[in-house]
Amino acid sequence: MAKDKTPENAEPVGKRSSDPFGIESAKWRINPWAELATTMGVAVVVEEPEFTDVIENVTVPAGRNVKLACSVKNLGSYKVAWMHFEQSAILTVHNHVITRNPRISVTHDKHDKHKTWFLHISNVQEEDKGRYMCQINTVTAKTQFGYLHVVGHGILQNNELPNASKMSSVFVVIVGDD
Questions:
Q1: CA pseudo-torsion sign 100, 127, 68, 173
Q2: Domain membership of residue 98 as a residue range
Q3: Alpha carbons 152 and 60: distance in angstroms, whole number
Q4: Which of 102, 54, 49, 105 is nearest to 80 (CA)?
Q5: pLDDT per residue over 29-50, tens digit each?
Q6: 48 Cβ neighbours under 8 A, 6+ residues apart
Q7: 81 lies in a domain?
Q8: Is residue 167 part of a domain?
Q9: Helix (H, G, I), strand (E, B) or coil at 64
Q10: Are 62 and 150 in contact (CB under 8 A)?
Q11: Is 20 left (phi over 0), alpha (psi -120 to 50) or beta?
Q12: Are 117 and 134 in contact (CB under 8 A)?
């Protein structure tokens, strides 16, 4: 049986599994620092990135701004991307806005121990509703979702009433806890 020809500076990615022939296999990622660290007598442990919190589901009135948060630890050289799932649209990758929608922006708190990536949507519109996916570009991509629900399509904004001369009557509905 042939000996495993795994490079010395490689590390396993994911869990090992056995194939039908009983030969153990794993995916490997080259760690360029492993060779240097091995020469210096230092053990290198590379932790995979992971999400530290869920993406909150948010309800926002149309016309307002919203900020969705995706917190990650051990990001290393991996990148975080935001996508609008229903539209199959890549919105941002790392610090770059990919979409041509000028209402979309991305920021992150690089001083935070668990880096938090914020997707900003200004002047939210009805078509913005849906699932937003935060993804880490690991070998097997890690993803999580949050839902943006948009309310108030056709509802008055900023408590402003329309010009009364153009309407025969105005009805005001107050929603309470009763």
A1: positive
A2: 50-151
A3: 8
A4: 49
A5: 444 444 445 556 666 677 899 9
A6: 13, 74, 138
A7: yes
A8: no
A9: coil
A10: yes
A11: alpha
A12: yes
